[in-house]
Amino acid sequence: MTKSFWSATALFLVFFFLILHQEAGAGNPKLDFHAKTLDGIELSDESLNGTAFIVNFFAPWCPPCREEVPDMVELQEIYKKEGFTFIGIGFRDDEQNILDFIWEFGINYPVIMENAELMETFSSVLNGKLEAIPMSFVIDRNGSLVKIAEGYQTKANWEALIKLALENQQND
After folding, report:
1. How far apart are CA 84 and CA 48, in angstroms?
2. With left for phi above 0 and alpha for psi between -120 and 50, is residue 50 left, alpha or beta?
3. Which of 127, 135, 23 is CA-nearest to residue 90?
4. 139 exposure class (CB count in 10 Å sphere: 0-12, 13-18, 19+)
5. Closest-CA residue to 111 (of 166, 167, 57, 52)
6. Strands 42-44 and 52-58
7. How far is CA 9 from the centre of its chain?
8. What is the DSSP letter of 92?
9. Domain 29-167 CATH superfamily
10. Contacts by residues 113-120 (CB-CB < 8 Å, ≥ 24 positions apart)
């Protein structure tokens, strides 16, 4: 084996362990936000204190979003009793299309329209850019970001992310 191979392997392992450390909750940021859901309920990081949640940016025109929503609806029903909720954020679309999407899929969790404040808050942990969807932010009961999940998630992936949010305990 070459020296460059071992150097690359060591570098990979360092980054791998740094990522694991971040997912475990050490010093993770809290994402402050305030918004009104499409059914008129005020929602904020403060009102969700003690609740684990996943913020999912989606759009009706996004095929992977359409594919993952039925699993999210099913899992919302299962895990809401444990102090968990999904929060959908309609991305780059108009309110009527988002409302039609909610009705079509029977979405049973809060949905918010994208706005400048939300984009700034969630983009801040993505080097200033949130451009691809679906994009999900896993938040623990303390309001700390524990993981960012990019792209389509299978039902098994969603369950693992929900459990991560519910089980992550930090002493802030």
Report:
1. 10
2. left
3. 135
4. buried
5. 57
6. unpaired
7. 30
8. S
9. Glutaredoxin (3.40.30.10)
10. 113/35, 113/38, 113/89, 114/57, 114/89, 114/90, 115/35, 117/33, 117/34, 117/35, 118/33, 118/35, 118/89
**Each residue's pLDDT tens digit in the chain (172 positions)?**
565 544 444 333 333 333 333 343 445 788 888 889 999 999 988 899 899 999 999 999 999 999 999 999 999 999 999 999 999 999 888 999 999 999 999 999 999 998 778 888 788 878 777 778 999 999 999 999 999 999 999 999 999 999 999 997 654 4
Could you tell me the residue ranges of all domains in the chain? 29-167
Alpha-carbon span 144 to 3, nearest angstrom: 40
Helix (H, G, I), strand (E, B) or coil at 27: coil
Amino acid at 105: F
Q: Please say whether the beta carbons of 54 and 148 come within 8 A.
A: no
What is residue 172's three-state secondary structure?
Answer: coil
Q: Is residue 95 packed enough to be buried (19+ CB in 10 Å), middle (13-18) or exposed (0-12)?
A: exposed
Report pTM.
0.80
Give residue for tokens 């959908």: 88
Residues in the chain: 172
